Amino acid sequence: MSWTLPPPDADFGPATLPYGVLAPDDGPPRVVTRIGDQVIDLAALASALGSDLVEVFASDSLNPLMGLGPDGWRAARAWLSAAVADESARDDLEAAARPAGSEPMLLPIAVADYVDFYASEHHASNVGQLFRPSDPSLPPNWRHLPIGYHGRAGTVVVSGTDVIRPQGQRRPDPQAPPVFGSSVRLDIECEVGFVVGAASTLGRPVTLAEAADHIFGVVLLNDWSARDIQAWEYVPLGPFLGKSFATSISAWVVPFEALDGARVPGPDQEPPVLPYLAGTSDERFGLDLRLEILVNGQVVSSPHYTDLYWSPAQMLAHMTVNGASLRVGDLFGSGTVSGADRSMFGSLLELTWNGAEPIRFADGSTRGFLEDGDIVTLRGWSPGAVGRVTLGEVNGRVVANEA
User: Fold this and answer.
1) Closest alpha carbon to 293 in 378, 375, 208, 220
2) What would the pLDDT profile of 286-330 be if each residue is shown by its tens digit?
3) Nearest to 390 by CA among 189, 194, 250, 265
4) Which stretch of 4-13, 156-165, 213-222, 239-248 has the lowest confidence by average pLDDT?
5) Which of 110, 75, 77, 80 is nearest to 93 (CA)?
6) What is the pLDDT of residues 354-374, one digit of tens each?
7) Do residues 143 and 137 lie in contact, with contact meaning Cβ atoms separated by under 8 Å?
8) Of 103, 96, 114, the residue nearest 40 (C-alpha)
9) pTM, 2 dp
10) How far is CA 34 from CA 42, 88, 231, in A?
11) Longest dimension (CA), the chain
């Protein structure tokens, strides 16, 4: 291979420089980045260039890198950006490179805690119409605080991991007792996940102004959802077994710094939120992220993250306002990213209106919800300050439950 730096508008160009963890054929796991169609062994590159980052890159997770804190993250990205642009480092880059996709990628972080929010007004309104047609589409607290639930960190899996169809209680006939069996309304939720890289002190909330310094990076996230199990169990305490069986994230973590050029003003919020969620417009920033949902290779929706009502900083501030502390490796999801019309809905629940209006595919088949063997892919990108930022993709195949 002759090393070349891809142009700024290419996938995984120099504006992205994500981090992931490779399981190579010739040694232990190590931290890598991706540039174009190549992955770069960062421990090998750091060693060749005499960097003191060798130890944090010779790891089976990004947690040691995140443990350096925000100043350390910025310094590491500055070093990497300089290295890939340095003509004199071309031989070292070539020696540390290998083809992307030739070896498996691992879960990039050791997940500490996992929280999922419900930050899209369009999604929340659609779900309200479907599940509570006789009530207002939004609960009374929705515009006052970012609603969320605690998920199961141990079932967060990396892109490419098969998802076994979950089993549980459901009540298909509201006039009859519940039954047990495999979910028949298995769904997806197109989300963006935020990786916490800096811990906080128990009892001390993180403010809006401080939030960005706690967020290391972003991943694409699929919050797989068994809608029939969820519908029966979620009153009064919310999601449980209908969500906890699997949450897929992308193998690449895009540094939050790479999205500086994607920041946009946060949405107008009415009624006015309480002071700890208000802040300045800069502190309540949104993100210009363009997403796509594919089922069996066919694009079924193209949500935009700019449509979300609650910002990532507001989610993090609310998550800690009661004094709950953050840990390195915490993960929180945005909730389903949905827009105002069907072409931008982020779940099959909305796209098929709870199965009543199935999606038709090019081969003539239809889907209300997922069938065994279906492959779901979420992918995304963002216009960066100096070039396209690639969010990569997260995919998973549904397999039958043989229990």
Assistant:
1) 378
2) 999 999 999 999 999 999 999 899 999 999 999 999 999 999 999
3) 250
4) 4-13
5) 80
6) 999 999 999 999 999 999 999
7) no
8) 96
9) 0.97
10) 10, 19, 41
11) 74
Average pLDDT estimate for 60-79: 98
Residue 226, token pair as written in the block = 């068994």
CA dist., res. 159 & res. 179, Å (int): 32
CA distance 194 to 331: 6
3-state secondary structure of 176: coil
pLDDT tens readout for residues 186-206: 999 999 999 999 999 999 999
Q: Which of 123, 214, 304, 318 is catalytic?
A: 123
Place of tokens 């590159």: 45
- 123 in catalytic set: yes
Integer angstrom CA distances of residue 102 from 22, 37, 39, 276: 10, 10, 10, 47
- Tell me how far CA of residue 344 lies from CA of 120, 220, 341, 358, in angstroms: 12, 16, 6, 16
pLDDT, residue 324, reads 98
Distance in angstroms between the alpha carbons of the first and the last residue of the chain: 47
**Alpha carbon distance 17, 387 (integer Å):** 12
Q: pLDDT band at 386, cuts 50/70/90?
A: confident
